[in-house]
Each structure stands twice: as C-alpha cells, then as structure tokens.
Amino acid sequence: MGDSARESKLAGQFFDAAIGLLRQVRDEDAGEIAAAGTAIAEAVAAGGRLFAFGAGHSSLAAQDVVYRAGGLALMNLLAVPGVVGVDVMPATLGSALERVDGLAGAVLDSSPAKAGDVLIIISLSGRNALPVEMAMNARALGLTVIGVTSVAYATETKSRHVSGTFLKDHCDIVLDSKIAVGDAELTHEGIEAPFAPASTVVTSALMQAMTAAAAEELVRLGIEPPLLRSGNVDGGHEWNGRVMNEYRDRIFFRH
C-alpha cells in the first residue's frame, strides 16, 4: 500500500476520545437530558417558545438545532451581534465581547423571549460575563434556563463575571459536557500545543439528545412534535410549510 492508504494513529485516537466522551455523557447526564427534554416539551405544550444561545464556537451547537431537518421548528437562535461566529473582524473581537458587562441584558430586553419560554445557553467554560449574565437575566424574566457547559471549568478556573459565579450556577438544568479544561484531547511528541478539541462533537450530541427526549415527551403528552423535514426529500417543503404556518407565531427566524 502507498502512503495514501496508511491510517493515522492520531486520527484514530481522536475518534476513541470522542466516543469515550459520548458514552460518558450518555450514561452520566441521562437524567439531566431527560429533564431538559421534559422542560422543552412542556414549554411547547403550554404555548411557549424555544431559544438557543452560544458565543464563539459554542454558537455552532446552537445553530445546529435551528431551522434544520429533523429538528424542532420552534427552536430560535438568540443571536448576540459580534459573537455568533468567526465572521466578525477581527475574530478576536468576538472573544472580547463575551467579557462585556451588560450586553446580555440588552440583547434579552430587545428579544421576543418572555416568561414561560426556554433558553438553552451553551458555553464550554461558562466563566465569561456574557453567558453568566444571560442566564441570570433570563431567569429573572421567568424563562427556564438549560445550561450546556463543562463543569470542570468551575473548579479549575476563575470566573470572569463580577459575581465570581459560572453559568452552571444560574441554570434550572445543567448538562455537563465533561470536556477537560483547554478543550484538546490529544498531545504528541514534537507538537508543542495540545490539539483535537471534542467540545463541538459532544455538545452537538447533547443538543440532539435533548431534542429527541423532547420529542418523546411530546408524544407522551399527546402532541405531534413540530419537527422539520429535509427539503431534499419529496414532500419536505409541503410538510415544513404546514408546520411553520401552524406555529408561525413562535418561529422568529422566518420574519
């Protein structure tokens, strides 16, 4: 065989690490995932709305559950200007904005979120001002807050919020991604920095798991889960049109 057929030892190690983390959150977060699914389902049943927020790379998992095939049509992205992705220039500005006091409150006050809604806040470290204030303000408004974070950061790092608290301290339900501080699964001789982060894989899996749990609970409540189909399968557009029309007052990404 030539070099092109040679397997990468490090690539295999990353898959092993990611699979191990997925198994760990499946087993250790099962109760919290079910609770998150129930909270989402109960909000849907009661006429509430669903929102997801994440900054920087944490925003990837939030975006992954908004307007997508197999996802809940009611899930809306709560976007904070400048922190959603790496399209802001310079990219370092996004990181700086995560530490600005008052930004989360201003965004929530101008958003459609209100009491009875559910807000999922994703922050790997949970230490910056933005996710902490987002959770604090959301709960004060009467929202149910689900946090997806790595609890390890709360014991191994210091909060950057004036209160000294972390995202996990202001949530109704906390899903722990189990990601080690630094978010890099591999090291190797001759490579100075650790590499191969798994937070996106694990966090996205947690988001899809709670969506599945929500769908299961909605069926138990006798409600057809408002799921979207792929527009690339026959009948998908018609299905989505019906769902989005039925729930149009709770879907904000179409306005």
Automatic annotation (TrEMBL):
Source organism per UniProt: Streptomyces lateritius
Listed Pfam families: SIS_2
PANTHER family in alphabetical order: PHOSPHOHEPTOSE ISOMERASE (PTHR30390:SF7), SEDOHEPTULOSE 7-PHOSPHATE ISOMERASE / DNAA INITIATOR-ASSOCIATING FACTOR FOR REPLICATION INITIATION (PTHR30390)
Protein name: UPF0309 protein ACF05T_12440
Annotated ranges, domain SIS: 40-223
Bilayer-spanning residue ranges: none
HAMAP family xrefs: UPF0309
Family: Belongs to the UPF0309 family.
